[in-house]
Every structure is written in C-alpha cells, then in structure tokens.
Fold:
Amino acid sequence: MGAKRRIGVLALQGAVSEHLDMVKRGGCAGLAVKNRADLGAVDALILPGGESTTLGRLIREQELEDDIRAFVKTRPLLGTCAGLILCARELVGDARPRPLGLMDISVERNGFGRQRESFEADLEVEGAGSIRAVFIRAPFIQSVGVGARVLASLDDKIVMAEQGNVLVTAFHPELADDMRIFNYFVAKSSGALAESHFLL
Structure:
C-alpha cells in the first residue's frame, strides 16, 4: 500500500475538528494548516466552514493569500460553506470578506438565510446521484463563469461547483455519513479521476 494522502485543513477559524474527523474517516492523514510551512506539507487543502469575514482576515494576517492561490495551480482544494465564499471571484452586494478569486463564480453570502434557517436536503449531484446535504447559514453560487461547472443545485440555486483543482460546496459534507464527496476530493489529489467522476 502507498502512503496515505496528506489532507490539510486550514486551522485558523471554523469547523476544523469536524473536517479533520472526516479526513480520518476517509483513511487519510490529516494536518491542521496554520502557516506556509504546513501548507507545503500537504497533498490537498480544505477551507472549512466558519465565519468567512474572520477567516479571510486571518488568511491575510498570516500572509497566506498568494500561497493558497499558488497551491491550487497544482493541488486540489475543497471549500465548504465559508470556504466556498472565500474561493469566489466576487461576492454579490457585499464587500466582505475579500475573496481569493480561486474560481470564476459569483457568490451570495447567507443566501439561504441566517442560522435559524439551517436545514437538510437531498441533492442530485452530477455523477453521484442523491446525496443528503446539511446547510447551515449557507451561501449559494449566483452565477458561474467560463471554466466553472455546476455539479448540484437546490431550488435553482447553485450549491456545488468545480473548476480545475477547486471543488466547492455550500453545504457541510463533514457533518454527513456519506463520504462520496470527500472520496472524490481525495481521488483528485492523487490525479486518479477526471472531473465529475465520483466514487460510488
């Protein structure tokens, strides 16, 4: 057997432990990424859910913006909820946080309402079929540009997309038992799969 894939979780703020638990359940080695050296030690990176404005500020304070942009040129990144927001090219009607511009997508923060409007739903995901998804103060993708591909929508709102090495979800795969999205992300980190080919 080969060495375990090393999956980093950006550990500046947010649902870090939940994502590290998912990494462990997926049979990979998890690393809490707090600085440039940590980032250089992983095969793939997860930007977790949390408070997007705070997370964006901490990324800038740690001077990780350019490093993350360089990272996704050669290695996969998964952005969940707040992580999706930070991956955007632009935010709709909101100047905060300053996104990283990793994908050609336009995102609306809190697009499904505030914390009390949290819910679960069954999604039809391209290449994977039905997946149960947990939404907590979730954003949605209002539009996608050239190169970005929609993988799932809910009530005509885009909630999962992919562009190159970057995969984003408006929901929280770390809170579900279904590991297909994570397994797909890990497979991307090994270069084993083409886009939109899920492990069923």
Q: What stands out?
A: The helical segments are 16-25, 36-39, 52-61, 65-71, 82-87, 180-190.
